[in-house]
Amino acid sequence: MPHRHLLRTSSPVLVGRSEELDVLVSTVPRRSTVVMIEGEAGIGKTRLVDELLAHPELARLKVLVGHCQPLREPFPYGAVIEAMRSLAGTKLHTISPVAGALRPLLPELADLLPPQPEPIGDPHAERHRTLRATREILAAIGPTVLVVEDLQWADDGTRQLLRFLMADPPPNLSVVITYRREDLAGHLPLGTAYRPPDHVAGILLQLRPLDVDAVRVLAASILEHEAVSEEFADRLHERTAGIPFVVEELLRSLHGTADRLPDEVEVPVLLRDAFADRLSGLPELAHRVVHAAAVLGVPAGVEQLSVVAAIDPEHAELALIQLARAGVLHETRPNLYGFRHLLAQQAVYDSLEGPARRQLHLSAIDALRGTEPPPLVQLAEHSRRAGRRTDWLRYGEEAADRATEVGDPAVATGLLQQLLAEADLPTSEVDRLAIKLGSVAYAGLDQHDPVATLDRVLSDQRLSTAARGEVRLLLGRLMVRQSGRISEARTTISQAVGELAERPDQAARGAALLGTTFIGDTPVAEHLPWLDRVEEYLLGCDNLEVRMSLLANLLGSRLAIGDPGVLEDLSALPTVVESPAERRQLARTRCNLGDSCTTIGHFARAREFLTSGVQLASAAGSPFVVSTARSTEVRLDWYTGKWSGLTERATRLLGEYRDLLPVASELSLILGLLAITRGEWPAAAEHLGRTGVDSPQDAITPIAIGGFAGLARMWLAQDDLTAASAIVDRGLQLVRRKGVWVWAADLVPVAVSTLLATDRVAAAGALTDEFAAGIADRDAPLAHAALAACRGEVSADLDDSQNHYRMAEAAYRALDAVYLAAQASERADTQDLPALADWYDVLGATRDAARCRHDLRSRGTPARSRRGRRGYGLELSPREQDVARLVSQGLTNREIAEVLFLSPRTVEQHVAKVLRKLGAVSRAELGR
After folding, report:
1. Quick check: 440 and 623 in contact, CB under 8 A?
2. pTM reported for the whole predicted model
């Protein structure tokens, strides 16, 4: 049995409380301080205190910790006395005889304390003497922090003692208390109002729930070996309201998997028990209201709660006041009451007996049925839980349909999955629901559960052959989006087309997908017959939605391979459509055209298509189309020199869409290319390795070819000709197998450079000719510009070579491909290298700028400073910023020297200045 790593029960790092910790660390060790930390159960009060006490700044302080307990035997001053017991063996400074009053309470300190004083005979005086004795001892032990946790459970003596100490603490003492305000009698932690004296620092920290980002960090730190997606974090935050303890308990109950939170989870035992204890002291009417709230499951008003609880509104209002005071229910919005988080609601719900739950659900249906518009999801859920199967099926499907209409695929997917799980559904209903599920899943971003669900549906004997083919087609379409499944997807789709004889429209959809030219390493010659089949079907198709769906694949695929007829005649593409489904397909068509225009170099048209496509997709509720368009916009911005903030935008999108192959691979390509321009070789290699170069059969082909081109550029820049040659060979092998040379606009120029660098002059010329033949009749302006650059590279005549480079520069500039134009200008031996170097700097291509300045120096022309000559003081100069960035990437001095075209000695001097200015002790600190 494989070893399974143990799940952490808490985070190894403090999450979401760094500001609070900084406040404490900057104050508590330096002066007498009173700290009051409040927050609900599980919010992280103890964790914050633990981090404070473990901080090196508190190493010289003596730490005393006491805990108040909910179930305790009578013991006055219990928490403080518990804390002081740890003083056994401590050397006390001079103390007054009054300290002996603590002998009966602290026998452990008998050898440290003076003799016990004679009894006074007055209880109040005796008590005050005990308070004074405690202060005397704490004042005699040096710098100290006293912590008392969970003050809401403290006895009156402890509160009185703390009030005494905090009213005038000795200069060496800081006091930290934690409590839950909702559980305090009178809501005052010390029993009476408290204000610290002027000579004492007072800090009140009210800990709030974590936001989504902090929950994601917390989950990742607990799971350790699991990636935590944004979707998982959002759902986890929703289920737990950002309460750290609940997050930890829920993750523990899930056994450490971050795949997906189930719709229902068992309430963690500790939370359930804690909530049951809170409910135990409430009267019967309050129980009925809270039970109604638990069954309703959403915030509700007094009228609705009173109907479900079967009590009059006046009594319901009184019960709500009691529940709010007890912290059980909260006014989540004006006049609406509910639980703070879902697990609290589930804790109450699980305490109900089955018949009582069913009756409450029936009452909820009656209360909700007259609402306009009807809350279909709630009605469906109450019907399901009440056992009203017919109503559940009806409301559930209506709710899924409404969710689809308004663009909420997650809700629709969840409902349809639940409906399909029902036993004994007739074939007609299974067919209808399964097809709806596949359609909704395909239009959304929920990429894992729908695939598994459709797999299960396909094995269901209830499904008809035609519906099976339609479901299988949808499954194949989903698989195309997933990394490593494109080959499997083609097999699935081909099988689906064979099952769709009775559904020629769906068979045509499958043919359109199999004809998609830019997926995998299938030769384009095998795609074209499928596209011909689609065109044949379109001749007799008058359904606009179907036409738009097929055109999205047909036009995008033909344009991507440089078919000159596509942009010349877009008359088949409507500009205005009516239904939401038609709008989604029109959005997909325009975004596909934008992607293809980006691939072949029609950048202005690409921008037009993408802008209109994204607007349509957003309005029509098609998030997958939006995601693909956003990544294409990133690639378009790379080509057109819009690099400001591009790395950050691409990184953010990659984090959001990491599991979507078309999006993730495209974003990785651009991040890798940007890293190359900065000389960040490790980052470039990592990103480009995720473009499909290792599995082109499952890749988005133009992106994989771009990945090969980027890797070749990277190795060539590092003078590793062996590695560059190997990558070039693999990239060209893919191009030749695919048979689409218009996609090699970035690969062939670097391949020619690599061949010439390895003295394969004839091969370079032959490749250029092969490239020219491959794009001769194609509408591919980017490839034709690249061809001019290749001819400049292979030409043996200097004048001819420069002329071709100038032609390439002009062609790139006409496309607004400004970076590629600048590269061609360099090769054309431009006379304005200083201006070009400055332009590279502005663009962010720091290595290109350094290369230009190196060329200037090699010609005997001094390179001008980027910002003029001035002193930078403690600020890093531009060159030092470059060096610091590369050091943080893990490059050695010699590697940095090669990137920036400097001597290792110069880099060594820059590194020393960077470390000094940033106050860093070592290079490793710059990478943190």
Report:
1. no
2. 0.56
